[in-house]
Design brief:
With 231 residues, the protein is α/β, with parallel strands linked by helices. It is built from 8 helices and 9 strands. It has 2 domains: 151 residues, Alpha/beta knot (3-Layer(aba) Sandwich); 62 residues, tRNA(m1g37)methyltransferase, domain 2 (Trp Operon Repressor, Chain A, Orthogonal Bundle). The strands form 3 sheets. It has a 5-stranded parallel sheet with strand order 2-1-6-5-7, with helices on both faces. A two-stranded antiparallel ribbon has the order 3-4. β3 and β4 form a beta hairpin.
């Protein structure tokens, strides 16, 4: 998988992309990540990439020229299946979207900034718009890092136990059940007996029921989705 990221703050992505899952995906040759400084595509003599809004509202808007130049250059070199824009008013990014993106080969991610981008970019270039939550960040770089982390860990070979990703929270609209490790009794706090029984069927049933109860209590919205898909 190849991911090209367009940003006004490339330095902000240095740390997230050089540790943990993303680093492992790169080292194994399973993912190529290229970060492009949007200012390098600006024709402005001061390398500006923003301007005032025609509506005269507060805040600056990312200009169309450097964005169009960056996307057009990348698309002239290879085909991209998605051009993604990270923005607070995008569709909510979730596990199902991560699953879909993990099957792609080439992606562009444009990191939003300021009060957004010129709408013509969204109209003519963007194929998916994602928000990672109902809050506003200073820029879309951290959102891009979150999206990449959730997608790359799904690629075969990235994590040592590939079945682990398939049992994560949200894969089936349920949160994960509680987990325990040794010792079985710590200062009188005991692991549930069922987990020590060795009966895999009963353990799986217990974990599934716990996942349902956790989801119902903490995420009633997900629980409703789970019930709809079960019926």
């Amino acid at each position: 998988m190849r991911i090209d990221i367009i940003t006004v703050l490339p330095e902000l992505l240095e740390s997230p992309f050089n540790y943990s899952i993303i680093k492992r995906a790169k080292e194994k040759g399973l993912a190529e990540i290229y970060v492009h400084d949007l200012r390098e595509f600006s024709t402005d003599k001061h390398k500006r990439v923003d301007d005032y809004s025609f509506s005269k509202g507060a805040g600056m808007v990312m200009s169309i020229q450097p964005i169009e130049a960056a996307i057009s250059k990348l698309k002239s070199e290879r085909e991209y299946e998605e051009v993604i824009y990270t923005t607070p008013d995008g569709y909510k990014f979730d596990q199902k979207e991560a699953n879909v993106l993990s099957l792609k080969q080439n992606l562009i991610i444009l990191c939003g900034h300021y009060k957004g981008i010129d709408q013509r970019v969204r109209d003519h270039f963007i194929t998916k718009e994602y928000s990672i939550g109902d809050y506003v960040l200073t820029g879309g770089e951290l959102a891009a890092a979150v999206i990449l982390d959730s997608v790359l860990r799904l690629l075969p070979g990235v994590i040592s136990d590939e079945t682990s990703a398939l049992t994560d929270s949200f894969q089936d609209n349920l949160l994960s059940p509680p987990v325990y490790t040794r010792p079985a009794d710590y200062k009188g706090w005991k692991v549930p007996e069922i987990l020590l029984s060795g009966n895999d069927k009963k353990i799986d049933d217990w974990k599934h029921q716990q996942a349902i109860e956790q989801t119902k209590a903490r995420r009633p919205d997900l629980y409703k989705k789970y019930l709809r898909e079960e019926t």
